[in-house]
Amino acid sequence: xxxxxRKLICTVCRKKYYTNLRNSHGEYFKGIPKKGDLCKNQILNxxxxxxxxxRNPFEIYKNPCLINNYTTCSSDTNQDKGGRxxxxxxxxxxxxxxxxxxxxxxxxxxSMSAFFGRTDVALPGCQGFFYDMYMEExxxxxxxxxxxxxxxxxxxxxxxxxxxxxxxxIERAFEVGLQTEKNVKDKITCLLLEAExxxxxxxxxxxxxxxxxxxxxxxxKMGRLLTRAKKMIKDPNGEFLFDRQLFSNYVKDKNLMFxxxxxxxxxxxxx
Length: 271
Description:
The protein is mainly alpha-helical.
């Protein structure tokens, strides 16, 4: 079937323009299409005031009235301004909740690190390990904050829950740590489902290509360490050996758990 350009009048601005239009059955309009010419389930957007389908997506630029209505994903059209584009409000709320989850996890790990660093506990391996976990969760929260800003959303910081103060022993700390990582993964999964619901493919790729794999690896690491801790702390010297292995295998060389002063701005070691 040949394609013919027809002169039509936009029902929004009443301006005349030329484009190729057809209804849901492939029939081309000879004049201004009527409301019943297009099936309701084929309307591109609920806010689309024009009652015809576009054959070629690039034809959108021939009619300015279609620019704000043609979309491939769900969004709040009233908020698509400035640097924000096709970023649904439900996703924005879910990202803020993910930021809160990351900060809550980091606060728990910081409390664990402070507990094992006490002079009456003195387990530097556990102290350094949980401090590194604290820094990792902080980095994740900052990444989600930057993503929120990059998409034109607003970062809202909620109140962080107070963690436990006395962790009793190594086994208790790693049990809570394992559950914390599972909770973080569950939140990421909820955010992923929200992104898929609104066809936000960029956010789906952002989550699946990096965070889900990392969370699964972290859950495995926590689970293995918890199993080893349960076996080793039964022996009188097991707690000491477990802590030493934890320090040598997991604590980073530049861990700041023993730092008691602020780094000099001009100090090259911190650049």
